[in-house]
Amino acid sequence: MQLCVLILSLTSTLTELSGCFKKTTTEPHLVETVPEPTTKELVLVAIANAIPFIGFGFLDNFIMIVAGDQIETILNKKFPISTMAAAALGNTISDIIGIGSVHYVERFAQSVGFKAPKLTPIQLNLHRTKAAANMGRVIGVTIGCIIGMTPIPIFSYFHNGG
Questions:
Q1: DSSP 8-state symbol, 161
Q2: pTM passes above 0.85
Q3: Does the residue 9 lie in any domain?
Q4: What DSSP line would sit under 33-63, residue for residue?
Q5: Which residue ranges traverse the bilayer (predicted)?
Q6: 25 lies in some domain
Q7: Residue range 7-22, pLDDT digits in tens
Q8: Nearest 5°: phi and psi at 33?
């Protein structure tokens, strides 16, 4: 009997508590409407985010390839090392240098003179704006990585007796 009373008491308490959480009042005068960024503004957001990532992608690949090649050349004289191990060590060096170069890459990107559009914090937080920013970063780092592969044909030329 006491167990039934306890269960009923708990059930009514939980019902009351859940009612507190279900009650929501919307106050229309407090809701702010923000204009969606235009397509031009979204493209400018993507470009503004792409510029520094071109630098990051370039430095990352360029340093990894140069460092990996040197590690493989130097270490193979003392003991055998695989190309993948040399690339991994080159990537580690590239990442370390990348951390130190963040400030300089961002400063260079700002010196290019390209300015992102003036958007409100709410507009910057919209899904479309975040997607445009991320797309710009992806495109930027891809372009940078491709440009950063320039040591490959140069090394091939010199390693094969040019």
A1: T
A2: no
A3: no
A4: P-PPPPHHHHHHHHHHHHHHHHHHHHHHHHH
A5: 43-68, 138-158
A6: no
A7: 445 445 444 544 444 4
A8: -100, 135
